Amino acid sequence: MLERLNEALEHIESRLDQRIEVPELARIAVTSEYHFRRLFSALAGLPLSEYIRRRRLTVAGAEVLAGERTLLEIAVRYGYGSGEAFARAFRAMHGVGPGEARRSGSSLTSQPRLSFRLVVEGNSSMRYRIVEKEQFRVIGKKIRVPLVHEGMNPAIAQFIRGIDKETMRRVGALSDQAPEGIVGVSDNIDPSRAEGTELDYYHGVVTGAAPPQDLDALTVPAGTWAVFENSGPFPQALQHLWRDVYTQWFPSNPYQSRPGPEILRTRLTPDAAQAEAELWIPVERRAA
């Protein structure tokens, strides 16, 4: 699969001065657009759209310094509708406007070309299982929060502290299927998965029960789930588990992610320093 991802990267490079269609990149990688965006973000450490933008501004910067085209010609070539829009984007990346860069020969910022390579460490293994589930509901309390990749998410922590014990007792009593007990559910996640983009977070249970009127509910269609287990320091081990699923497990297995919520069941030690986790990711088999 990494070979196909690198072919998609070559496609990007050959069309930096043209329109780049994400469905075409996904076709080259032989995966879905949904999964391609998520896999790229996990492997590259930045969203696909940001990588394309930075690569375009890198090669545009070289053309600005070369002085062979006008600034407006360069702006149009790399997809900017006006010189002003190009100048704003150029300054945001390079710290200097294109006109000043050309006049003074300023130092510019470069986004290197990416290529993906498999690094075999062999010092760990991932515990997982594949589960088929019928339609179910997530019932609990919901909030819209920013995505945080490292460390505790303060918005989620504050939200959970604000839920009264009686409400959580009622919610917990509705749990009637795996994953059992109180879970954290992330849904409606921005495709880029960029830091600070928003998602719907549910603090609740997985159940077949009808939702009480004063609680939030999410209906989840029947489908296939990959379930991963992990333990370690909280919250780092949980965040590293998600990263490892996309950077290690997906490239090595015949599955791809599909639209749907991600479910995390966490059990903390009394001092909240360590956690045992079970992460449920909606998946489907990848086309051969």
Number of helical stretches of at least 4 residues: 10
Number of strands: 9
The helix/strand class is: alpha+beta
Q: Indicate the proportion of strand residues.
A: 15-25%
Fraction of residues in H or I helices: 25-40%
The main β sheet shows up as: 9 strands, antiparallel
Element-by-element helix/strand order: HHHHHHHEEHHEEEEHEEE
Note the overall shape: elongated
Give the overall average pLDDT.
91
Our Rg estimate from Cα atoms comes to 22 Å
Low-confidence stretches: 120-124
The CA-CA distance between the termini, in Å, is 11 Å
What does this structure look like?
With 288 residues, the chain is α+β, with helices and mostly antiparallel strands. It contains 10 helices and 9 strands. The chain has helices at residues 2-14, 22-28, 33-44, 48-66, 71-77, 83-94, 98-104, 154-161, 165-173, 236-252, and strands spanning 127-133, 136-146, 183-187, 198-207, 216-220, 223-233, 255-257, 262-268, 274-285. Strand 8 (262-268) and strand 9 (274-285) form a beta hairpin. Helix 2 packs across helix 3. The chain is elongated.
